């Protein structure tokens, strides 16, 4: 069976993506930076769909750690057919008060982390002459967002990287796309103060936050045969916010 790597798959959107891809018949490798027990629980749910599921801990922001992890995955399991760059963090703060490390941490994990995986996994997929890469960006890349200059810069960067990678890898039969969620109910959005969350709901056409499964479905589509001629695109799944 084809292997799918999901970065940041221990909870939230990444966990839902891993489960959906397992349901669709992919073996899954779930990455996380620290929450191994939670990732193991996600892997167990994936195995219930009759596929193999693996957990591997590494920091996507660390190029050498990504390189070592991917070499081990290739040797022990095989070359992935799907890579989902989902791992992400927030370190919110208004621009004029944002500390340098808040900016750097988010760029390192969200943007450079995606580059590390794209570049290293892209090279493996090129040799295999097949693959699907799906980057999880954010609708805030298009709208901007108070207190998120670091995050919106990283997510807008992912949209550009998606287009460039699609051009560079397309000749080898690899598609590269992005999904831009709006507000999705996870631990990440739970950290936002309730008054801001309630106000945000008023701007969403559907009047509610999305569920992680509603992003997983879009990712599964992009990983499927039905999306074989789509590349370089960013699909916004935000309940009509943007
Ligand atoms: P969560 O905070 O719930 O989960 C984040 C995941 O990323 C965890 O599995 C975490 O694992 C992992 N992670 C964080 N840093 C690293 C790292 N350096 N290396 C490897 N794994 C890491 O986030 P969500 O599920 O809400 O978000 C998932 C993605 O969707 C993110 O890219 C986010 O920016 C994006 N998104 C989310 C939205 C939302 O409203 N929730 C809206 C738009 C986009 P661990 O705990 O082990 O570190």
UniProtKB/TrEMBL annotation:
Residues 2-186 form the Ketoreductase domain. It comes from Agathobaculum butyriciproducens. The keyword Ubl conjugation does not apply. NADP(+) binds at residues 8-11, 86, 151-155, 184. The keyword Lipid biosynthesis applies. The active site is at residue 151. PANTHER family: 3-OXOACYL-(ACYL-CARRIER-PROTEIN) REDUCTASE, 3-OXOACYL-[ACYL-CARRIER-PROTEIN] REDUCTASE FABG. Belongs to the short-chain dehydrogenases/reductases (SDR) family. GO terms for biological process: fatty acid biosynthetic process; steroid metabolic process. The gene is fabG. This is 3-oxoacyl-[acyl-carrier-protein] reductase. Pathway: Lipid metabolism; fatty acid biosynthesis. SMART domains: PKS_KR.
